Amino acid sequence: MELFFGTGNEGKLRELRRLVAGLPVTVVTPEALGAPLPEVLEDGATFRENAEKKARAFALASGRLALADDSGLRVDALGGAPGVVSARWSEPEAPGALDRLERDQRNNQKLLAELAGVPKERRGAEYVAVLSLAGPDGRILASVEGRCRGRILKAPRGGGGFGYDPLFVAEGRALTMAELPPEEKDALSHRGAAFRALRPVLARLAALDEPEGNR
After folding, report:
1. CA dist., res. 156 & res. 116, Å (int)
2. pLDDT of 104-135, one tens digit each?
3. Domain boundaries, the chain
4. Residue 118: beta bridge partners?
5. Which of 16, 63, 149, 165 is the most exposed place for a label (fewest CB within 10 A)?
6. 71 by DSSP, 3-state: which?
7. What kind of fold does domain 2-214 have according to CATH?
8. 127 contacts 150 by C-beta, under 8 angstroms
9. Is 151 within 8 Å of 123 (Cβ atoms)?
């Protein structure tokens, strides 16, 4: 079964490919289709609204079962910010003007500046991810959510992961998300939790997609 994943984020693609291991699912990327992703205005008030809006648009554009992700960081001391604008927090005036690496660096710098002087016990945060699955006709088939509680460090550590990973330590861990081996990160992460909730749905759809003689 083909699954179109509408993202240009290589980190998310690597995570998804690890997470679909063992399922009869082939991940199709925008690059494989040879067409740019449709521009989707992420103006929803929640991660779910944005994920469903993107999944619907990607399904209709690709003519395939499509998966979309909307995720971000909620910091307790900042009243839940950056929230749904996590990816573009440092460039609200001209989103998309920076490349991903530079944007991640600026976002992390902004987070450290916003939390300057905030003690360790008040640096609680959580990662949130919503994965939405749409059929080729754009109908939403499922939306699932995953969360990961942790805290924000006072300086980045680690060269893996992406986004705010160098600053985020999950509860009960000593390493940042950017320091963890990929498999360990998947077991802890918000996106890993969301995908584990979605996996049974994909398994059922893949079974229905099989030729009758192979069931």
Report:
1. 14
2. 999 999 999 999 999 999 999 999 999 999 99
3. 2-214
4. none
5. 63
6. strand
7. Maf protein (3.90.950)
8. yes
9. yes
